[in-house]
Amino acid sequence: MTPLQIIFLLVAAISLGGAVMVVTRQNLVHAALWLILVLFGVAVTFVLLNAGFLAMAQVVIYIGAIAILMIFTIMLTRKVAKDTDEQLNSNWWGAGIISLLLFGGVILMLFQWQNFQFNLPNLNPSVDPLLQLGEGLVSPNAFLLPFEIASVLLVAALIGAIMVARERK
Amino acid sequence: MLNDWLFIGILLVIAPIVPLAATVIPDFIGPRKPSRLKSQTYECGVETEGETWIQFKVQYYIFTLIFLIFDVELVFLYPWAVAFNQLTLFGVLEGILFILILVAGLVYAWRKGALEWF
Fold first, then answer.
1. Burial class (CB in 10 A: 0-12, 13-18, 19+), B5
2. Least CA distance to B94: which residue of chain A?
3. Has residue A123 been placed in a domain?
4. According to a count of CB atoms within 10 Å of the terminal CB, is the N or C end of chain B lower?
5. How would residue A130 be classed by pLDDT, with cut points 50, 70 and 90?
6. Cβ contact B72–A151 (<8 Å)
7. What pLDDT shows up at residue A82?
């Protein structure tokens, strides 16, 4: 095994373990914190795939924004942020079998797919994709208009959020 | 490319050792004379009141929402900032326009009193 494969297996194991913790915790805040670990594992997977920008977006958007939003939602809406019910019901084994069959089916399909043994494409190392993206975002021939519209959209979302969430006086 | 990330990976492994060492080593070498006052929950110097898992004030939600907007802005500005040295003046001004539009949103939030902590 190459070091890359060892790191991948380690990260995958940590992410899966974290995912199991997310669904089995009774305390919702703890579940949200475990979810952050899972999302971080996905970010490391992006790094292993040489997608640095996606990894950064994963950390900023999913951990920085979505997870924080979830934690806030839990802390704001529940008087006691804890589920008192059992996390397993009597049908857990049926769901387990169906999940295993589905997983096995997907893996089987993937093995038959000809592109499964697919290596990372050899990109030109002298071209930094992040630099190209940065230039493309503000170039009139590329994404200038969507870039500015994104800004307007964010302001619209901000104003909408304030209108909805602000306490009426 | 991956080697750059290796340093972050090494940091991820080494960095937790510092706070762990600072909390675990005193456990072994420090003398212990517990008293009722000492073993109380520490909460920034004020006395702890009520339950731990309480409902927080809904006003805090608006801070999350505003933070969310500027978090997404960061994702757009990050490639722009990386390419900053190679951009034309036009490109730099476009990025500044992007920021100015969002500053208008921030001013709106400010004027509406959404940034007030109460």
1. middle
2. A138
3. no
4. C
5. confident
6. no
7. 65
